[in-house]
Amino acid sequence: MPRFDLPLTELQQFSPDIREPADFDAFWGATIAEARGWDAAPRIVRVDTPFTLVDVFDVTFPGFAGDPVKAWLTVPAGATGSLPAIVEYQGYGGGRGLPGDRLGWAAAGYAHLSMDTRGQGSMWGSGGETPDPHGAGPAASGFLTRGIDDPAGYYYRRVFTDAVRAVDAARSLPQIDADRVSVTGTSQGGGIAIAAAALSAGLVAVMPDVPFLCHFERAVGFTDADPYQEVVRYLSVHRGADERVFETLSYFDGANMAKRADAAALYSVALMDTVCPPSTVFAAYNRHPAAKQIEVYTHNGHEGGQAYQWDAQARFLAPLV
User: Fold this and answer.
1) Edge to edge, what strands does the sheet with 83-89 contain?
2) Please, what is the average pLDDT of the chain?
3) Tens of pLDDT along 162-219?
4) What is the pLDDT of residue 223?
5) Which of 112, 215, 288, 302 is catalytic?
6) CATH code of the domain covering residue 132
7) Which of 62, 71, 150, 256 has the fewest CB atoms nearer than 10 Å to its CB?
8) Is 232 part of any domain?
C-alpha cells in the first residue's frame, strides 16, 4: 500500500474542526460518578502458571453499572508493593487472553494489569471472559454501531467506563503505587487508553499505539477498511441517519478525549495504515495539551512498530516513574 494520506509535514500541523457536544464533560462526569458508586473492592486471586519469574493474579473489578470485568495482573515474582503500573487495553476483537500472555512489562519491573474488553475476545488471540449484558438496537456486524442511536446506550460508553474503573482498581491493589499508573493499548486499545487518560486524573503517561476511535467523521469517509466500514454499512442501510450517528460518536472521539488528558503522551502512527489513517491519529495527537512525543513508522501499515514501539514505550516511561 503506498502512502495515501497527507504528507508528514502537513500531518504534523493537522488541526481540523472536530464536532464536540456542549454537554461532553457533563455526560462523562455523570457516567463516571455513577460507575464509581459501585464501590466493591476488586477481587484478586493468584493463579498457577508455569512461570517462575512472575506472579499472575486473576482480577475482577466492577465496571460500567457494576458489571464484573476481568483482568490479569502480572508482577515480578515475590513483589509486595509500590510498583509502577501499566494498565493495558486490547485491540479490536481481542480479549485478555491467557495468564502470562504478556510478560514484557513485568519483566521490566512493572505491575501490568491487562483488561478484558466486554463482549469481545473471539476474533483473535487467546480469548476473553467478560460478557456485555446490556442490549442495543439495530447494528451492523461488529461493535462500532452497537447502540449508536444514543450516546447513553452506545457500546463504547460501557467500554470507556470499564477502562477508567480499571485504573481505579489498579490504584487500589496492594502491589501497585497509586501515584505511578500509566495506560497503553494498540489500535482499539490505544483509543481506549486516550479515553482513560482523559477521564482519569493524575496518570503518569498515556501511550496510544496506532490508535483507533479518533476523528470519526474523517475516518468513516476516508478509509475502506474495517472497523470504520461498519459505520458505512450501517449508514448505507439507515439512510439519512448521519447527523444522529456522528453526534453520538462525538462523545467518544479520541480527538475530543485527547485535549482533556493531563498525562505525558507517547503516540505512534504508521504512514501506510489504512485501518487507522495517519490523519486521524494526528487529529488526536495534535490536540494533546501535555508533554508529548510521537513515533512515526514511515513504511508500515496497521502493525506499526510492534516490538520497536514497546521498546520506545519502555524507554519513554523509565524516567517518568
Assistant:
1) 43-47, 54-62, 68-76, 111-115, 83-89, 176-186, 205-209, 264-270, 292-297
2) 96
3) 999 999 999 999 999 999 999 999 999 999 999 999 999 999 999 999 999 999 999 9
4) 96
5) 302
6) 3.40.50.1820
7) 150
8) no
Residue 59 in 3-state DSSP? strand
Q: Catalytic site residue 273?
A: yes
Feature table: binding site for substrate: 92
Identify whether 151 is part of a domain: no
* Catalytic residue from among 132, 273, 279, 288: 273
Is the per-residue pLDDT at 1 higher than 70? no
Quick one: CA torsion of 306, 161, 134, 61, rounded to 10 degrees? 90
Q: How many domains does one find in the chain?
A: 1
Q: Which residues contact 235 (CB under 8 A, 6 or more apart)?
A: 220, 241, 242, 245
Annotated binding site: 92
Catalytic residue among 182, 187, 250, 279: 187
Each residue's pLDDT tens digit, 77-104 = 999 879 999 999 999 999 999 999 999 9
pTM as predicted: 0.97
The answer to whether position 290 is within a domain reads yes
Residue 302 a catalytic site member: yes
C-alpha distances out from residue 240 to 147, 180, 232, 289, Å:
17, 47, 12, 36
The whole domain housing 201 covers 8-137+156-225+251-320
User: What is the per-residue pLDDT for 78?
Assistant: 93
